[in-house]
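Researcher: Before we compare anything, I want clean individual predictions. No alignment, no superposition, just each chain on its own. First chain goes here; please echo the sequence and then give the structure tokens.
Model: Echoing the first chain and its structure:
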Amino acid sequence: MKKKSYSWNFLAFLSLSLLFIGIFISGAEAAEKVVTSGTLTYTDLHPNLNALTWDNADWNWKHGYDTGFVVEHLLMGDLQKGPRGSKQYSFENVGYIPPDVITGELLESWEVKKKPLMQLIFHLRKGVMWQEKPFMKARELVADDVVYNLSRLKNSPKAIPLYLDFLGKMETPNKYTVVINMAEWNMDWPYLIGWGYYDGIPAPEQEKAPGGPRQWQNLTGTGPYMLTDYKEGHSQNYTRNPNYWGYETINGQKYHLPLNDKIVMMIIKDEMTRMTLLRTGKLDLMMNLNWKYVAELKKSCPRLKWARHIGPQHFSVAMRMDRKPFNDIRVRRAMNLAINKQEMIDSFFKGNAELHAYPFYPSFRGVYTPLEKMPPSVRELYTYNPEKAKKLLAEAGYPNGFTFKADMAGDADQSQLDQCAIVAAYLDKVGVKMELQMTDYPSYLAKMVKKTHSEAYFLINAPGTPIATFRKNFVTGETWNPHIMSNPYVDKTWEEVVKDPNLTEKQASEKMRNLIIYILDQAPAISLPVPYYYTAWWPWVKNYQGEVRVGAQRSAPIMARIWIDEELKKNMGY
């Protein structure tokens, strides 16, 4: 009996010992040493595209992507509420930050007043310094700089219609305070001037620098990095800003940001080249990895870490509602019924896609309606019914089908180019011939901006906030409205949502839910499945959990909080 008792006590002791060892190891891993040096080499969400402009007054969607390491915004997403903290938000959407996870970047705090005057009152951080350049000495960011930038953005000849109409007189009662008197209420103001696609705050001196703000050498901001080299078709190189204001607390210790010396953001058009660089450890992190490579990489590189996200962009076929044949809703509905979207998910995407994520993502809390809760007329658009498609075409006066042109960016992702061919093949079965007009991305984009695009347009489009998605895609005269939708009910409802200061968030959400159902029922586009994409990184990439954006197209605050364990990388043979 004693022997048995001894054996039991020994096992209990061994179990407790192993438990304490496990806790010790776990704690050691959690408290591993932060090394504030090293170089992070990675590819971002659009690794095939060169910088499109360095000047935000050009109103280009990619400005924040290219300048976001240098140029900061008034607001950003709070990463402590993401995967590395409270897990309140995933930070996977390109252009959406829920209101409850917004924090200040250049702003210390802000106030919103609706009575007696509609005002936004911004309180800037003190001691934030502009980076020094040959054309300017380092100096402190002040309120006049913010007013200058917002005014320049609003008055740009390329400004998007309706975007900044709410901005009235701007005042600076002191060097750290900006008061914006709103000409009208706009519920979406944080996105429009705080963390959106166009509202970065560069130094005013750039405008008068030799070569002007479109020259990369003149890019000047307050951010964690300085742009030190740009090679078209190869890389954008960023070096630590030693005078950056930001800090991060990790394991109870405060560290000056950024946590690495250098960022190399590679520009690589060829997918296989990107895969090779990741596989061989020459890329530390790949933010946007096609699902079709995942299974093989998990076998050949089992130590890679992974995160899966719903696609960063909607990919749809926008049909011009102002021209034949797509001015007839029967034709637009027929185009949708001719495409077997579920088969595309099963065969082309191998199950790695969502059927219904256009134009709202499932993560758009409060306004997204699942497909099964849509009315039958909307649900029908996601079914495959070529016979009914032919019937509708005949009713519309096209019993033998028709031929139309569609614009597409020839330098787009290969998966998107493949989908173009799939759409053409399906349409051919109902007698509709699609002629693809391929151009480089800048030319493709210019066609939409100038509204000179063909009858159809393969729209590569990242959503903004729910309100912004309505405006830019469906409101009359908007830049990103290649459907040329001009519908009084849509315009009126959007205005009610965005401009009524008395509207509660719940009331606004209900109006948006109903409006998107109405828009989808108009079939302005062939909404294609939205694929999942993957983010992969090596174990030596520390303090990273798969986050991709803290605002529209901006990953810089995420990258600034990463450090590289060079010793681990070396020990792993890379």
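Researcher: Okay. Second chain, same rules.
Model: Second chain and its structure:
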Amino acid sequence: MQPILSRIDPRDPTFQHNVQANLLGVKQLHKHLDKAIAGGGERYTQRHLQRGKLLPRQRIDLLLDRDSPFLELCALAGLHEKGQVPGGAAVSGIGRVEGVECLITASEATVQGGAIGAIGVRKAARLSQIAEQNRLPSVQLIESAGADLPNQADIFVPGGQGFRDITRRSRDRLPTISLVFGSSTAGGAYIPGMSDYTVMVKEAAYMYLAGPPLVKMATGEIVDDETLGGADLHSKRSGVSDFLAQDEADAIRIGRELVGRLGWRKEGPAPTGPADEPLYDPHELLGIASADLKVPFEVREVLARIVDGSRFLEFKPLYGSTLVCGWAEISGYRVGILGNNGVLFSESAEKGAQFIQLCNQTDTPLLFLQNITGFMVGADAEARGIIKAGSKLINAVSNSTVPAITLMVGGSYGAGNYAMMGRAYEPRFLFTWPNHKIAVMGAEQLAGVIDLVKRQAAAKKGVPVNEEQLTMMKQMLAGKIENESSCWQATGRLFDDGVIDPRDTRTVLSLALSAVHSAPVSGTSAWGTFRH
């Protein structure tokens, strides 16, 4: 394969403007991440440490192999939600333990005692999906007060899915190892209770369906934590605990040994390429990605900075040019790539559908680079069958069975989101850059549509348009859409698995590709009806 020839000029004013704007986005990303890392704040962090306990990220660091990367997932879940600390009261991601890639979740006990709220339930469901789809063992580092009782109406019913998922993963030979460092109360007690292996820390871990206050209210019995559900009780009498650890370090040691004894094997193919670095500096991605999404940019320039050796074998380069398709390797893993280079025309959509079929035929994972305003509209586009062609692409995306990873490098609007493997189509992982926006359509376009609709409605009724009222309505609506479409709102709602620094793209994609190869990689030849 020939390397991509880059044509950017770092001295170009547009490039320099993009760099400055994207650096501001990265700065904002780190500001939000710092808030998530701070957990419940200095007061609760110090109280936690004074009890002789480790913080969640410290526990994860001890659990991971030395020098293992940690791909944090959904770090900003709940961002901008009223009264929420970003992260859903948990730190979660993928890292290596005894050489095995595991999905790791650590309770954030400094945030309301690690109690799980609505966003935490949704995050847990997404993480469970990641473990199941990619065949990853799970390690839970638990210290949780259970359900956030004041908001029980939002979590009681969906929260039950977590217990179901643990047992179904166990059925499918995807074990869960729970290390209990503190309280594991009420519904939270069922997580270690349903795990394949449970370790409790002596004189620190407690597990019970109802804590001492609720027991007193329900039965009148007065009992302390240790007698009711301490580590000694569950290790010696109830049998809920499989291992009694002397302290937190000992629990983590036992957890590592348990992972090492799983005899784990990745079921997907190993890397086959040389995994050589791209020819171009990844820092240049900051100048390539448009700060103004109305300004297009060349997706091949992005590829040149993330794929091995900048090599890319392009499929149908002269046909359907607004969708770039082709093959490359990332850290030695072969991938089929689809990247937007403009609005989707009929030719682009048909080309993409054929390319997805070819990748399924050869068991090749897919990478989608989204920067899409949608499908072409208008009389000519309709006559040329844009609906038919778009349906072919969405059909292919919907029924493809090879692992897919989606990266949002710009806008994601309308049905273009669906056709390029948006969240609803279950890519294995989905990440975004800070310049990303997502909505049915842009704020200005939507306001313009409302303007036309209101004027047409007034004309039909034979009444004048209230220009002042209409202008105010459009401004309010445009502002609302602009705010809701930001990457920060999207990641807070779990529309993605995380916002990343563009310069880290190759590393993040490499870790995600390694994770998806823990499961078999197998394509399909079965598709829904293609309309011709």
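Researcher: What stands out in the second chain?
Model: The chain has 20 helices and 15 strands. Additionally, The mean pLDDT is 92.
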